[in-house]
Amino acid sequence: MKKTFLILFAGIFGFANAQEPANYYSTATGLTGFSLKTKLGEIISAGYKTKSYDNLYTGYPSSDTDKFYENDGSVLDIYSENPTGTDPYNYQHGVKKCGNYANEGDCYNREHSIPQSLFKQASPMVSDIHHILPTDGKVNGMRSNYPYGKVNNPTWTSKNGSKVGPNASSGYSGTVFEPINEFKGDVARVLLYFVTRYQTRLSSFSSGNILNTSNVSQGLTTWELNLMLQWHQQDPVSEREIVRNNAAYVYQNNRNPFIDHPEWVTAIWGPALAVDDASFSKNLTIAPNPVKGNIINISGDKDLKKFNKAMIYNMIGQNVQTIENPFQNGNTITLKNLPKGVYILKTGELNTKFIIE
């Protein structure tokens, strides 16, 4: 589906801090590091309403409907969505739910981002909508119980470009599953939510080369954590995540704090050790880069005029500037007194990194 919106941290539809309730995080004020993580785990566990596994299909119309690409009301499946063109297939809510499948497009089911075998299908993890996404049955099956990771030499590729193959990141050499760039930050914040929400239970789970069951404060194995921190930085919070977070709060009465406050990822785990520039768009460039004044020129191989917003984020995920209709009268953007540092410009499905000197 053609993507015609800008990924947002806050803005349209009147969202402010993703519509978090007043004082929801008040007891976390002033905390940092793993003390902050522990407190957030307490906050998002209090009042949680456990729903049945089967009930997820009734929650998905509110949390996972495509209102962001072609806006056609179909199931938003991160394993089949094509942000820049026509989807290979799509589903309507409640239609073609999985029984048997052989090929992509046969049916959709429920994907546990943290495989349910790691917690022995126990409640409430087995039905927590924050980490369980509607996805194509075939791709879900190909992902299996593999960790999310970076694949250079895929053994299998889905129709939207998700990949299975040997892990290319140091620290783990097994098979991993890599989603497309559009949803890498989404996946990262889901995993960070899980290890925060279930910190007190992690020591009883299996690792699966994903969970750090011996260091529950860290939550994820070191190699996986480093990669998720990179993905969090490369792909800032999207409008899809904001809408999903709000819907999940209505559905089960808790929130993903790393969508509401992406800066807390760095406050807890620190910055990513390195950011792989390969995950940024090759068809969007900024000149000059590094930036020495307050004017930047944007160019790309797409019609930039179709994008009605541009957003600039710092490297801890905070939105520091929003530009309305940035490309209607040319391809220059005026920066507003941003301090020296590294930033991400994101418009539509395009993103790129630049430096202010």
Automatic annotation (TrEMBL):
Keyword Signal tagged: yes
Signal peptide: 1-18
Domain Secretion system C-terminal sorting positions: 287-355
GO molecular function, one term: hydrolase activity
Family matches, as InterPro entries: Endonuclease-I, His-Me_finger_sf, Secre_tail
Metal-binding listed as a keyword: no
Protein name as annotated: Endonuclease I
Organism of origin: Epilithonimonas hispanica
